Task: structure prediction
Amino acid sequence: MLKNLSPLLSGALLSALDAMHDGDMLTLVGSGYPEEEIVSPVIHLGEVTTEAAADAILSVLPLDNEIPAPIMFLDCTGSLDDVPDVAFAVNGIASDAELRRVAMTRLEFDDFVALARHSVVTVRVGSDAPPCAFLLRKGFC
Result:
């Protein structure tokens, strides 16, 4: 175990994060996300929440600050006025990790899947309630 490093950050996940280039995307999905839509290598984190996975990942992964919204999330509500609690939480985790306000973009399913197909890695968590998925665009330190 490394000091001050989340135990969720396995060797495989750290290696995948380290191999990412500026502008590359990581997809973070729950178990409810359709398996057939995932084309990048998958790292399973087991029965953890999306929030716990995001906290671990964003503790080491810098987000892109050259684009207005480096986080995109799958809109499962269909309502522009309703942001799922998990999306609100991930936004707060990202803002805390980046020490700045991080904007997010809401995407419908087809648009989300089209972008997710360009991810270099997909991190899958066992928690699928509520169903939500995120794209995180890597920046430089």
The first strand starts at residue 25 and ends at 29. The chain has four helices and six strands. The chain has one domain: 19-137. The chain has a mean pLDDT of 91.
